[in-house]
């Protein structure tokens, strides 16, 4: 889908209704712009709480301190480079 909009003198753009509907955008939603060359891709910022449980974590790796995860990951990567 392509939709056009004009940039105001204040650098603002109104997201066309068809785009808002397609992305399920509502008032207050946050958006992210990703620049690729001379194009910008607009996306709705994901609600990270809705992603909870999306990735299975093995029981042995649950309830591990974040510092331990980082330390073990770095050690593992360093060992692979040797």
Rg, nearest Å: 21 Å
Question: What is the beta-strand fraction?
Answer: 5-15%
How many helices? The count is 2
Mean pLDDT equals: 87
Termini separation comes to: 49 Å
User: What's the arrangement of strands in the largest beta sheet?
Assistant: 1-2
User: What structural class results from the helix and strand content?
Assistant: alpha+beta
Number of strands: 2
Low-confidence runs of at least 5 consecutive residues: none
Describe the structure in your own words:
The protein has a domain at 57-81. The chain is 28% helix and 15% strand. The chain contains 2 helices and 2 strands. It has helices at residues 17-23, 66-81, and strands spanning 31-36, 39-44. The protein has a two-stranded antiparallel sheet with strand order 1-2. The protein is elongated. The model has no long low-confidence stretch (mean pLDDT 87).
How do the helices and strands line up, and which of them pair or pack?
Blueprint: H1 17-23, E1 31-36, E2 39-44, H2 66-81
Antiparallel strand pairs: 1-2
Q: What key attributes describe this structure?
A:
two-stranded antiparallel sheet, 82 residues, 2 strands, alpha+beta
In short:
With 82 residues, this protein is of the alpha+beta class.
């Amino acid at each position: 889908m392509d939709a056009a909009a004009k940039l105001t003198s204040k650098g603002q753009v109104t997201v066309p209704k068809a785009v808002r509907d397609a992305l399920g955008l509502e008032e207050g939603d946050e958006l992210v712009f990703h620049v690729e060359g001379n194009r910008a891709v607009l996306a709705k910022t994901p609600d990270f709480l809705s992603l909870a449980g999306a990735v299975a974590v093995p029981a042995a790796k649950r309830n591990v301190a974040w510092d331990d995860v980082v330390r073990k990951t770095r050690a593992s990567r360093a060992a692979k480079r040797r």
